[in-house]
Amino acid sequence: MAAERNPLLDDFVFPPFDVIEPKHVRPAFQSLLAKLSLLRVQEKDLVELETTVEPTWPKLVEPLEKIIDRLSVVWGIVNHLNAVKDSPELRSAIEEVQPGKVEFQLRLGQSKPIYNAFRTIRESSDWESLSDARKRIVEAQIKEAVLNGVSLEDGKREYFNEVQQVQLNWLPELIT
Q: How many Å apart are CA 137 and CA 118, to the nearest integer?
């Protein structure tokens, strides 16, 4: 039996809200997070970027945007559906995939190679030639990494990540 098509994983210009159902959320996020995370290191975009990172706009920011974009688009669709078409099944699916999403975001936000590459861009002689928009992006990425705990020592970083997951678990209780 062929696997059922998942509209969250299709390429689209406009999200196909009319065919997305709660049953699509778990498999879509499992697929996206598996592709983006460390489950199969040799195949992963993030690990590849970290190991080959060059502190230039085309070699850092553009590939990073590709890594982040798909997950952001799908998560935005799911959040929109949750706001307009809430159901126990959808809430359950979101609660199940959210820890993996947060774990990936923390992993990305705490990437020292990416953080160091952004700092190198900020400190380079090319800094002044960047547009104001690109400067804001670089500065925002550096700030985001610091807020995500990139500069914490390993033990403190693990504790920070645990706190993030605990806060995530409390969130549904605060909302209801």
A: 10
Q: How far apart are CA 126 and CA 29, in angstroms?
A: 38
C-beta pairs of 57-63 under 8 Å, 24+ apart in sequence: 57/121, 57/130, 57/134, 60/114, 60/117, 60/118, 60/121, 61/134, 61/137, 61/138
Q: For every residue of 34-53, which 3-state class applies, written as one string?
A: HHHCCCCHHHCHHHHHHHHC
The 3-class secondary structure across 90-149, one letter per residue, is HHHHHHHHHHHHHHHHHHHHCCHHHHHHHHHHHHCCCHHHCCHHHHHHHHHHHHHHHHCC
pTM (two decimals) = 0.74
**pLDDT digits (tens), the chain, 176 positions:** 456 789 998 888 889 999 999 999 999 988 887 776 544 433 367 788 888 889 999 999 998 888 888 888 888 999 999 999 999 999 999 888 888 888 888 888 899 999 999 999 999 999 999 999 999 999 999 999 999 999 998 889 889 988 887 776 665 555 54
Tokens encoding 87: 């159901």
Residues 61, 62, 66, 69, CA torsion sign: positive
**CA-CA distance, 141 to 138, in Å (whole number)?**
5
Residues 6+ apart with CB under 8 A from 59: 52, 53
